[in-house]
């Protein structure tokens, strides 16, 4: 969800106003993905690197996270959305963390769209944590070095039951992953939009999906009509 700060600045507003304006784009995305039968939508809301931002902005984002969940939980639950989270959640302040955990509990048995919030998330941190988990098991004698496989690494990630993403969409014209789902994105289709996140609407998501439909995913193999 990139471009909040620039969106606000372009209207002569403070950066934090851009984070507030992000909510409409989140609504549109959740609604559209739900209506299209998308099973998993992950929003990269706060990275492990975002803690380096000025304290006031970090506090603002954390407060916004808490109020976003509070304001939207009834509607999300009514629409059968199941809230999940990925990242170093222990880093989050108590208030937002409790709100998040209670939303996850409340929506845990819903069977609609899985809405995953990536919070204090970093792909390198996730791989590091997975390596520690595996090393701990080896040290305890519950795993052998020969048990380290792509499958056992995948199942040591934060959300092992969530499939790898089919498409990763980055807004605001930047063309990089910025530490997002590094392990899981090996064969994801990448889509870059020039639209800033606060301006990102249903029609932009439709364009991204349309583009995705034209892609031929080979996963290293050849086309079947080779
Ligand atoms: C990126 O734009 C956005 C963020 C780092 C924060 C996003 C957080 C929220 C929208 C609020 C909380 C989350 C939820 C799920 C309600 P940027 O600030 O890097 O923009 P810039 O590149 O234009 O400076």
Structural features, described:
- The chain has 226 residues and is α/β, with parallel strands linked by helices.
- The chain has a single domain (4-213), classed as 3-Layer(aba) Sandwich (Undecaprenyl pyrophosphate synthetase), CATH 3.40.1180.
- It has 7 helices and 5 strands, in the order ααβαβαβααββα.
- The protein has helices at residues 4-10, 15-36, 55-78, 94-107, 123-139, 150-154, 202-214, and strands at 40-47, 82-86, 114-121, 167-170, 189-192.
- Strands 1-3-2 form a 3-stranded parallel sheet, with helices on both faces.
- Helix 4 links the parallel strand 2 and strand 3.
- The radius of gyration is 18 Å and the shape is globular.
- The termini are far apart.
- The mean pLDDT is 97.
- Farnesyl diphosphate is lined by residues 1-6, 19, 22, 26, 43, 45-46, 50, 61, 64-65, 68, 117, 172.
- Residues 1-6, 19, 22, 26, 43, 45-46, 50, 61, 64-65, 68, 117, 172 line the site of farnesyl diphosphate.
Helix-strand blueprint:
Layout: H1 4-10, H2 15-36, E1 40-47, H3 55-78, E2 82-86, H4 94-107, E3 114-121, H5 123-139, H6 150-154, E4 167-170, E5 189-192, H7 202-214
Parallel strand pairs: 1-3, 2-3, 4-5
The protein binds farnesyl diphosphate.
**Average pLDDT taken over every residue:** 97
Task: List low-confidence stretches.
Answer: none
What would CATH call the homologous superfamily? Decaprenyl diphosphate synthase-like
Structural class: alpha/beta
Could you give the distance between the termini? 38 Å
Overall CATH class:
Alpha Beta
Largest sheet: 3 strands, parallel
Helical content stands at 40-55%
Number of domains: 1
Q: Tally of extended strands? A: 5
């Amino acid at each position: 969800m990139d471009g909040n700060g620039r969106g606000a600045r372009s209207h002569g507003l403070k950066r934090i106003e851009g984070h507030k304006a992000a909510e409409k784009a989140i609504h549109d995305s959740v609604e559209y993905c739900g209506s299209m039968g998308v099973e998993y939508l992950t929003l990269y809301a706060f990275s492990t690197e975002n803690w380096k931002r000025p304290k006031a902005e970090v506090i603002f984002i954390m407060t916004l996270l808490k109020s976003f969940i509070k304001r939207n939980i009834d509607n999300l639950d009514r629409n059968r959305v199941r809230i999940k989270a990925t990242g170093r959640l222990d880093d989050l302040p108590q208030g937002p963390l409790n709100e998040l955990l209670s939303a996850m509990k409340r929506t845990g048995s819903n069977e609609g769209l899985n809405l995953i919030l990536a919070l204090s998330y970093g792909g390198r941190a996730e791989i590091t944590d997975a390596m520690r988990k595996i090393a701990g098991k080896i040290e305890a004698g519950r795993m052998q070095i020969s048990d380290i496989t792509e499958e056992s690494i995948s199942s040591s990630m934060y959300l092992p039951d969530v499939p790898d993403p089919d498409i990763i969409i980055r807004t605001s014209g930047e063309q990089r992953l910025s530490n997002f789902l590094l392990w899981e994105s090996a064969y994801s289709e990448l889509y870059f939009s020039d639209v800033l996140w606060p301006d990102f609407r249903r029609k932009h998501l439709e364009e991204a999906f349309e583009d995705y439909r034209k892609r031929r995913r080979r996963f290293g193999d050849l086309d079947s009509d080779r």
